[in-house]
Structures are given as structure tokens and as C-alpha cells.
């Protein structure tokens, strides 16, 4: 049923975002260059945007009650990544990015529990 309601797809994207966070931590430990930092922030922005498109499609398809709030959180996160990208300098902004991504992932995964429960209920209702 998780495949039918999109939960498996979202779970895979969540794992990908966690991998990005882990890669960022490794880059920090290796004292990444400014070019690597910017490339990483571009990758985070791109991956998050793809994930948000998937969630947005599922939210619109199922008329999720908290859609406005959830989608606004997506826009705020993407804007934050772009701000960090624009301010990128060696060291501090990469640490800021790691902290922002970690905090956001924890919060987003908590919020997505409601969305995933909603999607599962919608799928059951369609059976």
C-alpha cells in the first residue's frame, strides 16, 4: 500500500537527504574547499526541491488539510539554502549548512509523519 500512496517514494527521498547530510559532515571533517561547499549547497537545494515537488504533487492530489503550512515550510527551507549559497565562504557557512540541514531534517521528518499517515489513510479509502 505504501507504493500506491507515495510513501515508499518519499521514504527513498528522505534517505537521500540523510545521505546528503552525512556527506556534508564528511566534507566538513575534510575541510572542504569553497567550490565543493557551493556544489554541495547546490545539490542540497536540487534534491530538496525534487523531494518537495513529490510531496506537493501528493498533497494536491489528496487535498491534505495542512497543505499551505507544509508547502510554506518547503519554500522557507529552499530560501535558506539559497541564502547560505550566496554567503558561502570557507568554513562557517558550511557549518551553518550542516546545522540547518540537520535541524530541518529532524523537523521535516516529524511533520511528514502527519502527511504520511494522511497518505496511507487516503490509499486505504481508495481500496
UniProtKB/TrEMBL annotation:
Superkingdom: Bacteria
Alphabetized Gene3D superfamilies for the sequence: Hemerythrin-like (1.20.120.50)
GO MF: metal ion binding
Organism: Azospirillum thermophilum
Any coiled-coil regions, as ranges: none
Family: Belongs to the hemerythrin family.
Keyword annotations of the record: Iron, Metal-binding
NCBIfam families, per the entry: hemeryth_dom
Protein name: Hemerythrin-like domain-containing protein
Amino acid at each position: 500500500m505504501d507504493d500506491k500512496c507515495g510513501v515508499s517514494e518519499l521514504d527513498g527521498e528522505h534517505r537521500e537527504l540523510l545521505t546528503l547530510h552525512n556527506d556534508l559532515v564528511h566534507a566538513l571533517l575534510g575541510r572542504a574547499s569553497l567550490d565543493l561547499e557551493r556544489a554541495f549547497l547546490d545539490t542540497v537545494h536540487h534534491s530538496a526541491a525534487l523531494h518537495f515537488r513529490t510531496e506537493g504533487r501528493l498533497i494536491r492530489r489528496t487535498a491534505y488539510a495542512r497543505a499551505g503550512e507544509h508547502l510554506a515550510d518547503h519554500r522557507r527551507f529552499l530560501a535558506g539554502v539559497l541564502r547560505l549559497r550566496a554567503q558561502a565562504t570557507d568554513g562557517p557557512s558550511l557549518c551553518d549548512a550542516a546545522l540547518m540541514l540537520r535541524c530541518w531534517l529532524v523537523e521535516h521528518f516529524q511533520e511528514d509523519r502527519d502527511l504520511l499517515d494522511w497518505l496511507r489513510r487516503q490509499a486505504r479509502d481508495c481500496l
